[in-house]
Design a protein that fits this description.
The protein is of the alpha/beta class and 452 residues long. The protein has 2 domains: 143 residues, Lyase, Ornithine Decarboxylase, Chain A, domain 1, CATH 2.40.37; 257 residues, Alpha-Beta Barrel (TIM Barrel), CATH 3.20.20. It contains 13 helices and 20 strands. The protein starts with 32 loop residues before the first strand and ends in a 14-residue tail after the last helix. The mean pLDDT is 94. It binds pyridoxal-5'-phosphate. Pyridoxal-5'-phosphate binds next to loops.
Length: 452
């Protein structure tokens, strides 16, 4: 048996703060391994910090979502939201599972094509589609979700110029009982904007109206608003059939399902409160099945779920740089993981676990990142066992948005690894080098040298 680590005694200030309602005990066990691979070995080999994505967790989560919808509705299609995580290995995992691509810029569109997605399986969303983007999307028969009238008129113009029939849907925003309403994208349902553009499309006869789309919010903590959104889109589909004797092919309910990350200030952990895929699926599919859409013409149900499909699959591993006490004696621990790599720490209380065994001694701690910026706080208050310089930590549920919204700020971005289904560790994005940054820079001749 190895000798137990000595831990010096401390005097703890009694603070008049709210205890966790389950008492003061730390909930954590150390997380020494991820899918059988030792955290310490990963950091020794690939550096610290480092992101680790589990392929099998992605596949398991996807199968669970697919089962929830497929058991309730006859035709379901997922489309992977590129902006949530567009590392090619992640996108291709979803494409192998059958997901189409959902993109919101020319860059993301090209990335999906580059990954090998057929244009007909790319959904092009968002307010920013340039003329060149639209030409490409029309020629590739992609599904263009119109956001505003300026875009509609540009597509109409291009349809004539190219003599092609664009495949379009409209994005609809609406009151689903969640406020503030996300009304900046698409056409409003209640005030008639949606019908206005639908009539324009149908009467122009220059493009094919193939679907109706809504994306009502993100991290939606109840399922009921999806039922309302599905009902309103179904009502539009019924109206289009009545007025034009025409059936649309799909209804797309967007993304926005909550992951199991806990929001700051939440009373209970999200694992206990947020809806499951089954609850979201029940709200959406029962609305569609109970609508007046003819059962022989039920549209395909498309889902653009991002966050809830990827968050759980990724971890961020890091190390303790130092410990100190602040002006009132509170313990502060400095990690090598900052908000530049963990954008979501601005609104989540990420679960953080030591990666080695520890004693039962815990203390309220502030966790800072390494940046020379006051805002670089990973957790404002967390009850953690005492960590020593060089110890490792595992940050959980970092798969959504962190690997796209990360910042190259003060430090370079680290390696991103994938633990494959067969248990191999693969680099899926290499750590940045000085040259990654400096190769893009140009220094005007007169600034190329100086003397000090
Ligand atoms: C961001 C986005 C998604 C994915 O949203 P999540 O909240 O990550 O599920 C889907 N559709 C559209 C149009 C989006 O903008």
């Amino acid at each position: 048996m190895t000798k137990l680590k000595y831990e010096r005694p401390i005097i703890k200030r009694l603070e008049n703060s709210m205890p966790n309602k389950f008492g003061m005990r730390t909930e954590f066990k150390p997380m020494t391994h991820i899918e059988g691979v030792a955290v310490k070995d990963i950091i020794d080999k690939y550096g610290s910090p480092v992101y680790v994505i589990s392929e099998s967790v992605i596949r398991k989560t996807y199968h669970n979502a697919q089962r929830a919808f497929n058991t309730r509705y006859p035709k379901v299609q997922f489309a992977w939201s590129y902006k949530t995580n567009y590392l090619s290995a992640v996108c291709n995992t979803f494409h192998q599972l059958g997901s189409w691509a959902e993109v919101v810029s020319g860059f993301e569109y090209d990335k999906a094509l580059g990954n090998g997605v057929d244009g007909r399986n790319i959904i092009f969303n968002g307010p920013d589609k340039t003329r060149l983007d639209l030409i490409k999307a029309i020629e590739n028969k992609s599904l263009i979700h119109i956001d505003h009238l300026d875009e509609y008129y540009m597509i109409l113009d291009l349809a004539e110029e190219l003599s092609l029939r664009p495949q379009v849907a409209i994005r609809v925003n609406m009151d689903t009982g969640i406020y503030p309403i996300w009304d900046r994208f698409g056409f409003n349902y209640e005030n008639g904007q949606a019908w206005d553009v639908l009539n324009k499309i149908m009467i122009s006869k220059k493009m094919d109206l193939i679907g109706l789309h809504a994306h009502i919010g993100t991290y939606m903590m109840t399922a009921a608003p999806y039922g309302i959104a599905a009902k309103k889109l179904a009502d539009l589909a019924v109206g289009i059939k009545q007025k034009y004797d025409y059936y649309i092919k799909y209804i797309d309910l967007g993304g926005g399902f909550a992951s199991k990350n806990t929001l700051k200030g939440a009373y209970l952990p999200a694992e206990d409160t947020n809806p499951s895929f089954d609850e979201y699926a029940e709200a959406i599919t029962s609305s569609l099945l109970n609508s007046n859409i003819h059962p022989d013409h039920l549209p395909t149900l498309i889902l653009e779920t991002g966050r809830a499909l990827i968050d759980d699959s990724a971890y961020l591993l890091g190390s303790v740089i130092a410990n100190k006490r602040n002006s009132i004696g509170k313990r502060t621990t400095i990690l090598d993981i900052g908000v530049n790599l963990l954008f979501t720490s601005f609104w989540y209380e990420h679960k953080i676990t030591p990666a080695q065994s520890f004693s039962h001694h815990v203390e309220d701690t502030v966790l800072y990142g390494p940046l020379c910026m006051n805002i670089d706080v990973i957790r404002e208050n967390i009850s953690l066992p005492l960590l020593n310089t060089g110890d490792h930590v595992v940050i959980h549920r970092v798969g959504a948005y962190n690997m796209t919204q990360w910042m190259q700020f003060i430090t370079l971005r680290p390696n991103v690894l994938m633990i494959t289904e067969s248990g191999d560790v693969e680099i899926i994005r290499e750590q940045e080098q000085m040259s990654t940054i400096s190769n893009l820079e140009k220094v005007p001749k007169h600034l190329s040298s100086f003397e000090l």
